[in-house]
Amino acid sequence: MKQTKLRSIVMTAFFAAIIFVGIQAFRIPLPAAVGTPFLHFGHIFVVLAVLMLGPKRSAIAGVTGLVIFDILNGYIHSIPNVFVTTLVKCLVTGMVFLALKKKGENNSRKEYIFAILCAAIYGVCSIVLDFVWSSSELILAGSSVQAALTAEVTAIPATIINAIFTVAGTAILYLPVERGYQLWK
């Protein structure tokens, strides 16, 4: 029992660290009217955490890795957004994957397709949540609804690019990461 719990803690911490490194080591700035988005591996590793660890532990790993990055890189103002949206994305995507995995009945081909589908669900959640959160922030800061929505529409392409990158990265990395994770378990 103790070894299983320790393994669970170690894997959660490992994914938190790899999520942080995935953003810290590789960032390509993307143009946007609002915010400072960039292309990075962080969300790919969050999705892989969801697929390996499940909804709860991946939420802990995802929030921890992303928030540590924000603290160390001057994005403290983004922490509430990152905290809430990552928590929601991990829980939703993780629950969907668990449900689909049960239907897959240990069929590795189906599981792979479900993993890619869940990466796409994570990406769609990112687009919707970022749009709603950022629009709401602008409105609360005093922008008109029209100005806030216009600004966010111009910023959404960066989120869409990251979502596509996340799906592609997950499609490439899922099988080797899953095999390694199963060997370590």
From TrEMBL:
Gene3D superfamilies: 1.10.1760.20. The chain crosses the membrane at residues 9-26, 32-52, 59-76, 82-100, 112-133, 153-175. This is Putative membrane protein. GO terms for cellular component: membrane. Keywords: Membrane, Transmembrane, Transmembrane helix. It comes from Catenibacillus scindens.
